């Protein structure tokens, strides 16, 4: 095993809230314990922020926005801060990623890819900090009136995140908001707050002024307070569709801007002419990566009838070959689920799958052998012969569970692929470029992956259709989420 640096946060002291550049306890004095899902043991004590702490953090972010230097800083100087932050994240990445391994079970084997993505996001938005511009627009009004637009930061951003990529998500929301000149109150998920808190510390070290990035750990109460706060201008939310609906309702008070990255039940469609060597591991890891805890996981796997039996057999063999276990070991491919609650949820669906008549061909059980017994491990699971109306085919499970369904025609695959309230990811596997494009046009989803899955890039937008949310993350569109457009009219005399 590689010798990872000691995570600075695990020295036994309570992890505090970052408000206005200072580390402070929750006003209530409450703390909560994060659990290591690998062995169910207590990992760290964390300040349990509540509405009163959110109030303080929002006030600090407001001051930093209105009177602090951040918004007025020259774009070049904001860019330098973000580039320093990118260097710091890069330099400390093993430690940051290790916090996620301990807090939510992400295997250390995934660190290299995550480092590249995190650093790339920060550098990409550092670049965009100096590329913000309005337009001059010809108008047809009488007289000599010149019109142009300017872009302005939306103000104080509340960022509320899920636990399945704690560090990556913290960076994903922070980088474009900062590049746009906004200030932030980040509320990480209560299951995995350690790396976002450490990231907040690095923001200060990078020279980002106090109050610009605030991190308030806590649960749903803190999140709800942030979502409803009258002095927050925008909420950027990643989480379940159910909570997303509550965010929209809470935003109505002061008509906040809202962007929502919500759940999914993504279709992944394999045609009979697909390259099997690509499609088997590709469709399997489209679900099993991060132990199935990815919003865009391709959990509804439609396989054309001509290759259905052969495909299911090979998929099953692939699933059974995966190494599930201690995420600290370099050769582990799947770690545990994040929590006992998530384990309970996944086990409920494993039971429902069999009860409703699906054919279990791989996995289907919790893993308790050896030293896995105290952790939340589930075997990579494949159900075949799944009907579209079964619970495992309609509900987001958020675990390593694939539902395989046969199909006959392209039109049928598109229609069944779209028959879901969600619209986040989707995939198509074929050697026929025409069919690939037909399916890509037909699917109502924010991303379509052709002969690949889950590919992400700082420059390419990601987001949902329908119940998977609105707004985009990554790319120039993500910057726009944090910018207002102001139109200016000037009479020339
Ligand atoms: P969740 O909705 O339960 O919680 C997400 C966050 O919202 C947490 O920080 C939580 O404390 C907070 N929260 C809970 N209730 C709240 C309320 N009433 N008001 C404001 N905040 C509140 O989701 P989860 O179980 O942590 O994460 C899993 C879900 O996230 C899945 O549905 C998954 O698909 C989704 N997700 C989506 C994306 C995406 O990019 N589309 C990425 C990752 C996860």
Characterization of this structure:
Pfam families: Aldedh (PF00171). Belongs to the aldehyde dehydrogenase family. Its EC number is 1.2.1.3. InterPro entries: Ald_DH/histidinol_DH, Ald_DH_C, Ald_DH_CS_CYS, Ald_DH_CS_GLU, Ald_DH_N, Aldehyde_DH_dom. The active site is at 261. With 493 residues, the protein is α/β, with parallel strands linked by helices. It has two domains: 8-262 and 468-488, Aldehyde Dehydrogenase, Chain A, domain 1; 267-457, Aldehyde Dehydrogenase, Chain A, domain 2. 37% of the residues lie in helices and 20% in strands. The chain has 15 helices and 23 strands. It has helices at 51-66, 75-91, 93-104, 111-129, 166-180, 194-205, 220-228, 241-251, 276-288, 308-321, 340-355, 391-394, 410-418, 433-442, 475-480, and strands at residues 17-19, 22-24, 31-36, 41-47, 136-137, 145-153, 156-160, 183-187, 213-215, 234-238, 257-261, 267-270, 300-304, 359-362, 366-367, 377-378, 381-384, 401-407, 427-429, 449-450, 462-463, 472-473, 483-491. The strands form seven sheets. A seven-stranded mixed β-sheet has the order 14-17-18-13-12-19-20, sandwiched between helices. Helix 6 links the parallel strand 8 and strand 9 (213-215). The chain is globular, with a radius of gyration of 23 Å. The chain binds nicotinamide-adenine-dinucleotide (NAD). Nicotinamide-adenine-dinucleotide is lined by residues 160-164, 187, 189-190, 219-220, 223-224, 227, 238-240, 243, 246-247, 261-264, 295, 396, 398, 424, 464, 469. Residues 160-164, 187, 189-190, 219-220, 223-224, 227, 238-240, 243, 246-247, 261-264, 295, 396, 398, 424, 464, 469 line the site of nicotinamide-adenine-dinucleotide.
């Amino acid at each position: 095993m590689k010798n990872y640096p000691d995570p600075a946060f695990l020295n036994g002291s309570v992890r505090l809230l970052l408000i206005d550049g200072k580390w402070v306890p929750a006003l209530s004095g409450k703390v909560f314990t994060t659990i290591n899902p690998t062995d169910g043991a207590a990992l760290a004590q964390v300040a349990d922020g509540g509405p009163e702490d959110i109030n303080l953090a929002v006030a600090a972010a407001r001051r930093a926005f209105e009177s602090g230097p951040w918004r007025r800083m020259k774009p070049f100087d904001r860019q330098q801060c973000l580039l320093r932050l990118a260097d710091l994240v890069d330099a400390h990445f093993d430690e940051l990623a290790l916090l996620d391994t301990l807090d939510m079970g992400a295997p250390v084997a995934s660190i290299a890819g995550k480092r590249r993505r995190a650093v790339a996001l920060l550098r990409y938005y550092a670049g965009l900090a100096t590329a913000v511009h309005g337009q001059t627009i010809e108008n047809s009004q009488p007289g000599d009136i010149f019109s142009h637009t300017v872009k302005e930061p939306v103000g104080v951003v509340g960022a509320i995140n899920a636990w399945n990529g704690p560090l990556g998500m913290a960076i994903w929301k922070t980088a474009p908001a900062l590049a746009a000149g906004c200030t932030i109150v980040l509320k990480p998920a209560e299951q995995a707050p350690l790396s976002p808190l450490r990231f907040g510390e690095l923001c200060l070290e990078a020279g980002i002024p106090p109050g610009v990035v605030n991190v308030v750990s806590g649960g749903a109460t803190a999140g709800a307070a942030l979502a409803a706060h009258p002095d927050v201008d925008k909420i950027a939310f990643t989480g379940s569709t159910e909570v997303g609906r509550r965010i929209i309702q809470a935003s109505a008070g002061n008509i906040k801007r809202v962007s929502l990255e919500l759940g999914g039940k993504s279709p992944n469609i394999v045609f009979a002419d697909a390259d099997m060597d690509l499609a088997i591991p590709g469709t399997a890891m489209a679900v099993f990566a991060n132990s199935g805890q990815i919003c865009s996981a391709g959990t509804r796997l439609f396989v054309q009838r001509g290759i259905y039996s052969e495909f299911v057999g090979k998929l099953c063999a692939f699933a059974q070959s995966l190494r599930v276990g201690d995420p600290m070991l370099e050769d582990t491919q799947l770690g545990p689920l994040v929590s006992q609650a998530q384990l309970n949820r996944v086990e409920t669906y494993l039971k429902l799958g069999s009860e409703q008549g699906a054919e279990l061909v791989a996995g289907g059980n919790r893993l308790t052998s050896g030293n896995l017994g105290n952790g939340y491990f589930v075997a990579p699971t494949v159900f075949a012969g799944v009907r579209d109306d079964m619970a495992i085919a309609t509900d987001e499970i958020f675990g390593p569970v694939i539902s395989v369904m046969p199909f006959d025609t392209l039109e049928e695959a598109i229609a069944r692929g779209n028959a879901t309230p969600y619209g986040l990811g989707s995939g198509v596997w074929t050697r026929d470029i025409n069919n690939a494009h037909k399916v890509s046009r037909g699917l109502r989803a924010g991303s379509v992956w052709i002969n690949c899955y889950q590919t992400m890039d700082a420059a390419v937008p990601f987001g949902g259709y329908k119940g998977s949310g609105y707004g985009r993350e990554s790319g120039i569109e993500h910057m726009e989420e944090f910018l207002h457009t102001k139109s200016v009219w000037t009479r020339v005399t």
